[in-house]
Backbone:
């Protein structure tokens, strides 16, 4: 997902990740966390040092932050936030190890792009208002 930003936006990628995930309305944060937990992603309690809404930070630069949640049921997830000159990229990487993980992912697969788009657009609207 790619969101257009004013070129004057000077937040780091990690600050954008926090805006998208941690600054979302409480019902959205709760729904996201419940969904990730139902998929078997291993999150840390929020707030936790070195995490964004329970997702451990695996790599960070001013322009990029990679969040990574380990599997408990064979589904591994990563969220990438990349700051670009006039845009913010949000990408999700899902690794499915085995039939159990595929069965867990199947009901979420079609909704996932819409949810990502929605939380990204809402965050950009909040941040640029």
Residues:
């Amino acid at each position: 997902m790619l969101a257009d930003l004013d070129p004057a936006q000077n937040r780091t990628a990690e600050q954008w990740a926090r805006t998208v995930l941690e600054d979302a309305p409480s019902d959205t944060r709760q729904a996201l966390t419940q969904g990730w937990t139902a998929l078997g992603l291993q999150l840390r309690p929020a707030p936790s040092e070195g995490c964004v809404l329970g997702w451990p930070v695996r790599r960070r630069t001013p322009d990029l932050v990679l969040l990574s949640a380990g599997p408990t049921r064979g589904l591994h997830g990563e969220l990438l936030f990349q700051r670009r000159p006039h845009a913010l990229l949000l990408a999700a990487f899902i690794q499915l190890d085995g039939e159990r993980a595929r069965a867990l992912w199947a009901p979420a697969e079609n909704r996932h792009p819409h949810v990502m788009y929605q939380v990204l657009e809402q965050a950009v609207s909040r941040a640029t208002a």
Observations:
- The mean pLDDT is 91.
- The helical segments are 13-21, 26-38, 99-109, 112-128.
- The CA atoms of residues 36 and 43 lie 8 Å apart.
- The two ends are 20 Å apart (CA to CA).
